[in-house]
Amino acid sequence: MAAFSSRVMLGPLVAAIDQGTSSTRFLVFNAKTAELLSHHQVEINQSFPKEGWVEEDPKEILQSVYECMERTCEKLTQLNVDISNIKAIGVTNQRETTLVWDKETGEALYNAIVWLDLRTQSTVERLINKTPGRNKNHLKHKTGLPISTYFSAVKLRWLMDNVDEVAEAVLTRRAMFGTVDSWLIWCLTGGKSGGVHCTDVTNASRTMLFNIHTLDWDPELCKYFDIPMEILPKVRSSSEIYGLMKICSSLKSGCLSGIPISGCLGDQSAALVGQMCFQEGQAKNTYGTGCFLLRNTGAKPVMSEHGLLTTVAYKLGRDKPACYALEGSVAIAGAVVRWLKDNLGIIQTSTELEKLAASVGTSYGCYFVPAFSGLYAPYWEPSARGIICGLTQFTNKSHLAFAALEAVCFQTREILDAMNQDSGIPLTQLQVDGGMTSNRLLMQLQADILCIPVVKPSMPETTALGAAMAAGAAEGVSVWSLHPEDLSEVTSEKFEPQINPEESEFRYARWKKAVQRAMNWETTEPISNGNGETSIFSSVPLGFYILGSMLMLIGAKYIAGHK
C-alpha cells in the first residue's frame, strides 16, 4: 500500500462494498486518480445442505460488510487518511442470489439461495413444459433471459412454496424480497427503522420479473410466476442517492454514518464500468466464482441467436438512458479451484494450482468439463454434469490442474465465439479482470486458446472501482467525473498468443467432444415405487439384469445343494 507524505492533497474519496459469492470487500478509492488507498476482505462460507443446493447466511453476509468497513477504517486511520473525506459509498454484489426477510423484525426468513443453486430444476422443467412448443426462451422478448435455475424468480417461487415462514410473511404483508444489494442497502440505511427497500436496473434485470424495455417490474411476468408485486424493491438507476448510512457511533466505522449510498450495480455490470467499456462494442471478461463476458451493445437491447443473455449494463443517473449488454455466463470458473482444494485436497491454497499446472505444461489429453451446476451459456443445459475424460495411467494431479485451467479458457472461447457470431464483428483483444487473472499461466492459456491478445489492467479491482465510479458520479455527490477526457489512464499487461492456431483448434475440438459427453446426465423426475422412493426397477435393463442375477444365484445354490 502506498505511503502518503501529504494527506491533505488526497481530495475526495469514494468507497465501495463488493459483496461476492466467495468473499466480501470494502475498498476506498481516490476520486481524482482512481487509486486504491486501502481495503479489507473477509471470506464467506457456503453451505450445501443437499446435492445441488448452495446457500449462504444473510446475517454472515451483513456482518462481513460491517467487519470489512471497520477494518478498512482502522487501516485508513493508521495511514493518517481522514475518513471524513469519504463522500459516497457504492454497492456491487453477486447477482441473482435470492433473499426474503421480515420487514418488522429485520430477520431473514431463510438462508440466501445462491445463483449457482439447482434445487429449482424441476420447477424450471415444469414451467418450460407448459410453454408453447416447450420453449425455454418463452419470456426472452421481455426479460432477455431463458427460463433457468440461474435467475431469481424461480428461487423466490421455491421459497414461497417450501418455507412456511416465507409463505406466512407474504400473506401477512411482512415479507420483503431482494437480491444481495437490496438486503445490504435496506440494512445499512436503517433496516426495520426506516431502511430503504430498493434495487437497481442491473440487478432487477436478472430476476425474470423485470421488463428490460420498460425498465420496471412487469405485471404479466409477476403473474406468470405468481409473485405479489408488493414484496419487490423499488427499481432505481445505478447512480443516485438511495439513502444515508446508519452505523453505531461507538465503532471506528461509525464515522461513515450519514454518508450517502449512491451507486449500485450487479458485479458484472460494475466490472464493465470499472473497465471503462462505455462505447458500443467494448467488452470485458471477469474471472470470479463464475466467468462472465459482457459486450456493450449501446442504447438498444440486442437479442442473441446463439445462447447469450440480453441484460441491462448500467443506467448512470435517473435521467440518463439505460445501456444494454450481451452476456455470456459460465457457472464454474474460480469455483473449480475451490473444488480441487476443498473436495479433492489436490491443493492446499489457490495459488498452488498455477505451480502444479506449470510443472507439466499440458493436460496430456485430459479434459475437464466442470458442469457442477449444469451448463450455462451458450447451452443452458441444466441436466449436464461434471465430467473428466481422456484419462490414462500416466495422468496425475498436475495434468488435472492444467485441465481445470484449460476448462476456464475453453468455456470463455465458447461464449466469445457466440458473441462474435451475434455481433458480426469479432473482438480483436479481450479485456480481463477478477481474482483469477493473477494466475499468469491462466492468462497465457486464455490468449493461446482464443488466438487473440488478453489485456489485464494493473489494478485488478475493477468491479469495486465501477461501483465507486457510479457512487461518486451521482447527482448530489458529483466528485467523480465520467466524461471520457477525465477518466484515468489505465496501465495494463498484454498476453499474446504463443501457439499456432491449428494446435488451438485441435484442443478446442476435443473440448467440444467432452462437453457432449457431459450432456443429458441428470433427470429430475425418476420413477417412484409409490412410497416416494426411486425403485431400482425404474430402469428396465437394470431391472432385468438384477432379476436375472438373482435367479442365477438361486439356481447355483440349488445345484450346489444337490451335489
Automatic annotation (TrEMBL):
| Example of a GO MF term | ATP binding
What keywords are assigned to this protein? ATP-binding, Cytoplasm, Glycerol metabolism, Kinase, Membrane, Mitochondrion, Mitochondrion outer membrane, Nucleotide-binding, Transferase, Transmembrane, Transmembrane helix
Q: In which pathway does it act?
A: Polyol metabolism; glycerol degradation via glycerol kinase pathway; sn-glycerol 3-phosphate from glycerol: step 1/1
Species of origin reads Salmo salar
- Specify the Carbohydrate kinase FGGY N-terminal domain's residue ranges: 14-274
Q: Which terms in the GO cellular component ontology are assigned?
A: mitochondrial outer membrane
Q: What is this protein called?
A: glycerol kinase
GO BP terms: namely:
glycerol catabolic process; glycerol-3-phosphate biosynthetic process; triglyceride metabolic process
| Top-level enzyme category | transferase
Where in the cell does this protein reside?
Cytoplasm; Mitochondrion outer membrane
Q: Which residues form the signal peptide?
A: none
Mark the transmembrane ranges: 542-560
Q: What is its EC number?
A: 2.7.1.30
The similarity annotation says: Belongs to the FGGY kinase family.
What are the residue boundaries of the Carbohydrate kinase FGGY C-terminal domain, all occurrences included? 284-474
Would I find Membrane among this entry's keywords? yes
